[in-house]
Amino acid sequence: MFRSEADLIMGFNCLALAIAETQSRLLAEAFMTTHYHRIVQTDDYAALQHKDRYAYTRYFNAKYCRSGSLGEPRFFFREVEGAAHRLVALNYVLRQGLHHGLATTPFGYRHSSANSFFRKELGKDYTPDILPQHKCSRYLPHLKKLPPGYRMTSAGLIVREDVIDTSYVEQEYHTPRNFSYQMNRLSNDSIIREQAEENDTAPVTLESIEKGVCGFDLKAALLSEQGRIDTSHLSDLEMCHIIDDIYLPEFTRSGEGQSIYTLTASRRADLGNMILADNRAKLISSPFNGRRTTPAQLRRCLAL
Questions:
Q1: Where are the alpha helices (DSSP H) in 65-211?
Q2: 187 close to 219: Cβ distance less than 8 angstroms
Q3: pLDDT tens per residue, range 200-252
Q4: Does domain 5-225 have CATH number 3.30.70.1290?
Q5: What residues does each domain of the chain span?
């Protein structure tokens, strides 16, 4: 769903506009390449999801010359009742970058709101470069405007702290010390027991948060919690960059266009086989920088 940094930025911007249009409250979010998570308080989650998904799909289809819906037709939705349940849900969403092996701490992953809370106390109280209003439209969906009270950084990202109710979330954690502890807490049975003591609703677990995410590996996620990150593999964003910006311009024929979505499935498979062979050959001069890909990752990044 997100092939580049620009896509991830647009993904958050579409969510931010949907939050404003539905008068919802955003508590936490995290965007991965294949899916995204958010914790919201809203009167109409279906409307929020529709506005968000529709705006982003239009952007993605126009950029990559494709048509039709994007992502699965249904979305996973769960109500969270109780402070203990809510805290665990917040923890798991904010630690997405860690659980998916993209950073050694939750704070090292840029495309989540983990760095939006207790910023002054944790030494992150910086002032971003703000883009003038008349330049913001290029980073928004077609015909959309920046809502009142929202600012945009020079990178085109709506300022997360303008959208997220950081005060509410900080009250959930009580102190910066507890927030730091929760961001580094290992998943164990005590987390489930704490929720059971609160009410009899099903506990929030890492597995339940990731329900429906294709290829999610619980064992690998739990290892990542301990900071044991495998850095020998390319990330999806790196792989998509290699495909879209390095291989595709040389691979496509006249009339095929410059997007994987304008290629037939067999042509995409041929491209994947070529990339996989080059990656395994360990060429002296290559865009892989000594890092590996897998057939599963190539199928994912080639939409096969």
A1: 83-94, 96-99, 160-163, 166-173, 176-184, 189-198, 206-209
A2: no
A3: 999 999 999 998 787 888 999 999 999 888 889 999 999 999 999 999 999 99
A4: yes
A5: 5-225, 236-301
